[in-house]
Amino acid sequence: MNRKTRVLIVDDSRTGRALIAAALRRDPSIEILGSAGDPFEARDIIVRDEPDVITLDVEMPNMNGLQFLEKIMRLRPIPVVMVSSLTVRGADVAIEALELGAFDCFPKASGLSGLDAYAGLVPIVKAAAASGVKRRLPSSVRQDIHDASSHKPSGSGNGSAEIIAIGASTGGVEALGEILPALSESTAPVVITQHMPALFTASLAARLNRLCRIEVTEAQDGMTLRTGHAYIAPGGQRHLHVRRLAGRLTASLDAGEPVSGHRPSVDELFSSVAKVAGKNAFGVILTGMGRDGAEGLLAMRRAGAQTIAQNEGTCVVYGMPRVAVELGAAEKTLPLGKIADFLMSSQGAATGVKH
């Protein structure tokens, strides 16, 4: 009943292994099963001791983290949390790792701040152990996405949408990779808050942009929100809000304290959309830990927007959507594969601004 979460730490840096182990040991429900300096050493521990969770450095000698992750997911699926350096290269690899099936990615700490910086790894490791490894459905980014425009209006929505707001956390990379490539160039502007560090969101936007017909970019302060475009809130120091200036919807990046433990916060994004777009908006809350976004989605529903929560069966972590459903914030609960269909069939002609 009270079995501890057994963790294997894989990192080529002895200091890195020690910092992660020290941070995780602060929680009495976590046991450090072992540590390994390279994937070959880790392989033997995995076969012998069967850890519940692995923390895996992205860049290691002999076999890089992505190669090892792919082998783990194929041969002996175990929840894996990638630990990635805060560099452009590290962020690119982290996004690819999430697509391969990693549970989450965490930024690598350095220097004397390392132990405290790894404190945030504790709840992620525990959530990874609780979730197990769900078989990932093939992402639509690897399928023919050109049938999205063939959807016929069949929803019971409010007519044309002026804006679509999406919030996600753990598992969101996979979920966004399923939804965004299915949207057509006539889709209303999409604004997204995905919990990630700064460089990670830039890498995510670039990767999604290569896979989608709509344009996907990081949001910039003062940008006009346009039809056929998606805007991802930059990770880091500011919240993404939507404002109306001279009749046009614009992105606003604003300083503020973390909300529900996050900056940018999904609650902040949804609440701003509720104020400026009301019934002419869609709100979508996707997989993720915690409760960020649930109150904001409720504000959107009360303002007349159509609101959707991802269902439990397709979530990597059924946290944020669960709270939204419990609050009555979600008008509909849909599996991941049906969300884009609903958006396309319900919104009708978008009303954003084209180039």
Automatic annotation (TrEMBL):
<keyword id="KW-0963">Cytoplasm</keyword>
<dbReference type="GO" id="GO:0008984">
    <property type="term" value="F:protein-glutamate methylesterase activity"/>
</dbReference>
<dbReference type="InterPro" id="IPR011006">
    <property type="entry name" value="CheY-like_superfamily"/>
</dbReference>
<feature type="active site">
    <location>
        <position position="195"/>
    </location>
</feature>
<dbReference type="InterPro" id="IPR001789">
    <property type="entry name" value="Sig_transdc_resp-reg_receiver"/>
</dbReference>
<dbReference type="InterPro" id="IPR035909">
    <property type="entry name" value="CheB_C"/>
</dbReference>
<dbReference type="GO" id="GO:0008168">
    <property type="term" value="F:methyltransferase activity"/>
</dbReference>
<dbReference type="GO" id="GO:0032259">
    <property type="term" value="P:methylation"/>
</dbReference>
<keyword id="KW-0808">Transferase</keyword>
<dbReference type="InterPro" id="IPR000673">
    <property type="entry name" value="Sig_transdc_resp-reg_Me-estase"/>
</dbReference>
<protein>
    <recommendedName>
        <fullName>Protein-glutamate methylesterase/protein-glutamine glutaminase</fullName>
        <ecNumber>3.1.1.61</ecNumber>
        <ecNumber>3.5.1.44</ecNumber>
    </recommendedName>
</protein>
<keyword id="KW-0378">Hydrolase</keyword>
<feature type="active site">
    <location>
        <position position="169"/>
    </location>
</feature>
<keyword id="KW-0597">Phosphoprotein</keyword>
<feature type="domain" description="CheB-type methylesterase">
    <location>
        <begin position="157"/>
        <end position="350"/>
    </location>
</feature>
<feature type="region of interest" description="Disordered">
    <location>
        <begin position="140"/>
        <end position="160"/>
    </location>
</feature>
<feature type="active site">
    <location>
        <position position="292"/>
    </location>
</feature>
<dbReference type="InterPro" id="IPR008248">
    <property type="entry name" value="CheB-like"/>
</dbReference>
<keyword id="KW-0489">Methyltransferase</keyword>
<dbReference type="Pfam" id="PF01339">
    <property type="entry name" value="CheB_methylest"/>
</dbReference>
<comment type="function">
    <text>Involved in chemotaxis. Part of a chemotaxis signal transduction system that modulates chemotaxis in response to various stimuli. Catalyzes the demethylation of specific methylglutamate residues introduced into the chemoreceptors (methyl-accepting chemotaxis proteins or MCP) by CheR. Also mediates the irreversible deamidation of specific glutamine residues to glutamic acid.</text>
</comment>
<feature type="modified residue" description="4-aspartylphosphate">
    <location>
        <position position="57"/>
    </location>
</feature>
<dbReference type="Pfam" id="PF00072">
    <property type="entry name" value="Response_reg"/>
</dbReference>
<comment type="similarity">
    <text>Belongs to the CheB family.</text>
</comment>
<feature type="domain" description="Response regulatory">
    <location>
        <begin position="6"/>
        <end position="123"/>
    </location>
</feature>
<keyword id="KW-0145">Chemotaxis</keyword>
